[in-house]
């Protein structure tokens, strides 16, 4: 148990260091933006004196390192700056980020269920027709970009001329789950499916490979030879051991899903982080783009740390390291 605590402690200790590195990277990159925060805040008609006064009042004339430490201080107090519309960035991100998280994790849940079922079936029926069909499906899923699949789903299933009219092509307005569960699920179904399919394709191959490796181990033949039913061996031992490997790639897949969600939100007009970053880039809103990028990056780091800890907990062998 002491080894487990030590491993968890090391990962938690690395969390603030990685977040600090991300803040530095995002701040430095955004500092080279050609957009002028003073002109964005005061408008194109602002006088040079007003622009100079704004830069002086907000520390824009200070050295880069000084501004970075000021940025960190504001970040610790929940201050990400203000948008070009004089709205706090934290307030805007606070409304959009939960929507992106819901879309990301619903897509991940769909991908995990699909890959677990197809991966196990492909391993149990390897080199038979079931395995061959699943292999073709996974290759097709891997070769299908999420944004292209989203457009196809809108054409086939969206409420547009020529579509089947089952799901909204544009999610306007966003309805929370607890306000209207049926409308919420109807709105998020197509975006989540578009996100899930490519990830399900890659995870299915990982699950199949892990299952095949476990099924070929000696303990499986020994257990079956001892009279334990094959389904019991697969369910109790093989499946549990095989799923340890896919857990290690879940963190990277979450990052892929979160990045894909930004594009999917724009396609379906979902008011999440994707719309925010599009608005920020369109308006040259440096603070908004910086806040959105930083939030997504930190979320990606935290999710990977959580997946790391989950892997440590489910894999007894690594606890002895």
Overall 3D shape: globular
The count of DSSP E runs of length 2 or more, i.e. the number of strands, is 0
What class, by secondary structure content?
Answer: mainly alpha
Following the backbone from N to C, one meets helices and strands in this order, namely: HHHHHHHHHHHHH
Number of separate helices: 13
Return Rg in Å: 24 Å
First and last CA, distance = 11 Å
Describe this structure in words.
With 321 residues, this protein is an all-alpha fold. The chain has a single domain (2-33, 80-320), classed as MetI-like fold, CATH 1.10.3720.10. The chain is built from 13 helices and no strands. It has helices spanning 2-31, 37-42, 48-57, 64-76, 89-124, 129-142, 146-157, 181-215, 218-225, 230-242, 244-268, 273-282, 286-314. Helix 7 packs across helix 11, helix 8 runs antiparallel to helix 11 and helix 11 (244-268) crosses helix 12 (273-282). The protein is globular, with a radius of gyration of 24 Å. The chain starts with a helix and ends in a 7-residue tail after the last helix.
